[in-house]
UniProtKB/TrEMBL annotation:
Keywords: Cell membrane, Hydrolase, Membrane, Translocase, Transport. It is an enzyme of class 3 (hydrolase). Its EC number is 3.6.3.-. Pfam families: ABC_tran (PF00005). This is PhnC protein. It comes from the Bacteria. It comes from Staphylococcus aureus. Residues 20-137 form the ABC transporter domain. The keyword NAD does not apply. The keyword Cell membrane applies. GO terms for molecular function: ATP binding; ATP hydrolysis activity.
Amino acid sequence: MSQIEFKNVSKVYPNGHVGLKNINLNIEKGEFAVIVGLSGAGKSTLLRSVNRLHDITSGEFFIQGKSITKAHGKALLEMRRNIGMIFQHFNLVKRSSVLRNVLSGRVGYHPTWKMVLGLFPKEDKIKAMDALERVNIFR
């Protein structure tokens, strides 16, 4: 079972523009994947489709064997919690540290008052530091 799997994924916009056409791709656990292409080739559309910021026209996405394409409501929210994304323009908080920006991905798991006060559990801090270490930002 692939960690991420795209099966015949296509996206056609209402104006008829084809954003994606029959994409098939498997990404295994631990692999790093790079998507390269010219401007307008569909890179951002593909990435935004992974967490359903853009819905696809046909095909299906699987994350750890579960279809995110068919997920709705709480099931979709739960799947999104396990998808990390860094956008082209980052959307980082400039006055926050790198660690705090990474920890912001854990906000949905804890009470609001704790997050406002920056009271992240030790386990979250360890996960964040491990993630930063994995991409050679923290040692």
